[in-house]
Amino acid sequence: MLEQATRERTVGFITAGLGLVAGLAWNDAIRSLIDYLFPLDKNGLTAKFIYAVAITFVVVILSQYLVRWMKKDTGTSA
């Protein structure tokens, strides 16, 4: 039982690490897209706020989806 819990945690940590790598890749891609769409000032405040709002929106939606998915798997009501 302890061995199974250790495996599950290890897989969770590895998955989180891979998710971080993928997130960093998307970070660069989205920044490049914003630089392309708003070429006036690549380090402009407006572009940074648009980027922050877009990322926050995506994270909130994904978080809500994951919470509902976890509740569905555990059998509790969402």
Automatic annotation (TrEMBL):
Pfam family, one: DUF5654
Listed transmembrane segments: 12-29, 49-67
Keywords: Membrane, Transmembrane, Transmembrane helix
Protein name: Uncharacterized protein
